[in-house]
Amino acid sequence: MARDTHRPDIFAGPDEEAMSSRLNWLRAGVLGANDGIVSIAAMLVGVAAATTELSVIVTAAVAGVVGGALSMGVGEFVSVSAQRDAEEALLERERIWQKARPAWEREQLVRLNMETGMTESTARLAATEQMEKDPIGIHARMHLGVDPDDLTNPWAAGIASILAFTVGGLTPLLTTTLPPAGWRVPLTFILVIVALAITGYVSAVIAKSPPSRAVLRNIAGGAIAMAITYGIGSFVGIHI
Amino acid sequence: MSETSAPVYGTEESLGARLNALRAGVLGANDGIVSVAALLVGVVAAQPPTGVVVTAGVAGIAAGALSMGVGEYVSVSSQRDAERAQLERERGYHDSHPECELDQLARLHEETGMSPETARRAAEEQTAFDPIAAHARAHLGIDPEDLVNPWHAAIASLSAFTAGGLIPLLVALFTPAPFTIPATFLAVLLSLGATGFLSGHLGQAQRRRAVLRNLVGGTLAMAITYGIGSFVGVHV
């Protein structure tokens, strides 16, 4: 039974961990996998329509996957870092406020406690006791929604994105190299749907949420993205 | 005591959702700048008529913004599904063994510093008021009223991508022939820096670090895509 190492056991129920750190890399992974499947498939369909030479197709696929995975990973790292910076800035300001106006901060904590259902006397007592132990932590959790021990992790997002894009992006390679030439493009379209469904399913397993909804949403989303990119590109005659 | 000095995020609700929209916006803006620039540099190299450049740029922006928006919607939805599923399970536990849940909540409160008696009282009062929210906050780190919002992420991404992509397009359109490509590269650098600055400002975090990181990251992404594409002779 795995546990989040930041918190003691009592913070987790029978099969929950504190999922918040997990959730961001889930998002990055879903985005990466879907993007990998859709964009590499779109590119390879173009290449496979122009040539049957395996070496060209493989080279294009590898280039596309490496380029796409790395640039997505960088994008995730930069954007999640912005998020993390914002969280750290909030914590820093919390520290400053605690020093500058401790009485006001205590009153705020009392109010927040009361909003969760405590009576005023309990809220006041609780606030006093909590602030003796860890004033920054309790404020951060209560009104910033930030857990100082569990800030968003840009590396996790970046790595999840790279790995997911790579796995997703390599799957269209199968249908553009192995089958006989005439079958490649149609089979790739089918594979895209299947791969999107699998990504949806896996994401639902990780999220412990209803699989059918995730599968349908992933297929619809990926198909729409592909249709948009391909459609607009064809319409203007440019490879986007 | 008035609090006119309280900064924007000081007592905001839905902070988590906003932070996610910030992330989506940064990703969208950077991607818009870099990918539209890369597309246009390829188009402009053949010195086509202006109409072709406009069409390519608009198409690239439209396709990119929409598909990024869809990607954000789908991926943030999985994140929200996970949060909702946790809340659902919490409801289940509460229905099936309320006494255990009360004990757990009291223990969690003790961990934050409350004495056993205060913790017990607080847990009882919260359970009478809104037990799921209390548990969600205390040990799942979720605020049921502040789940991530896929629509906000999608819209942030779409808008940011569009704004980002317009910059290289405008530069490419209004810079005369021999200077177009270098000007576009320069525009990419400047706008990556500006996006970094803006993201730092919106996050009320260190701007210099954000600017540098955005510059390095965006340039790296562009170099990777362009470099590998050129190396193998394929538009990646």
UniProtKB/TrEMBL annotation, chain A:
The chain crosses the membrane at residues 25-47, 54-74, 155-175, 187-207, 219-238. PANTHER family: FE(2+)/MN(2+) TRANSPORTER PCL1 (PTHR31851). Keywords: Membrane, Transmembrane, Transmembrane helix. Signal peptide: none annotated. Its main location: membrane. InterPro entries: Ccc1_fam (IPR008217). One of its GO terms (molecular function) is manganese ion transmembrane transporter activity. This is VIT family protein. One of its GO terms (cellular component) is endomembrane system. It is found in: Endomembrane system. It is a multi-pass membrane protein. The lineage of its organism: Bacteria, Bacillati, Actinomycetota, Actinomycetes, Micrococcales. GO terms for biological process: intracellular manganese ion homeostasis.
From TrEMBL, chain B:
It is found in: Endomembrane system. GO terms for molecular function: manganese ion transmembrane transporter activity. It is a multi-pass membrane protein. GO terms for biological process: intracellular manganese ion homeostasis. The chain crosses the membrane at residues 21-46, 52-74, 153-173, 179-199, 211-234. Signal peptide: none annotated. GO terms for cellular component: endomembrane system. Keywords: Membrane, Transmembrane, Transmembrane helix. It holds the Pfam family VIT1. CDD domains: Nodulin-21_like_1. PANTHER family: FE(2+)/MN(2+) TRANSPORTER PCL1. This is VIT family protein. It comes from Demequina lignilytica.
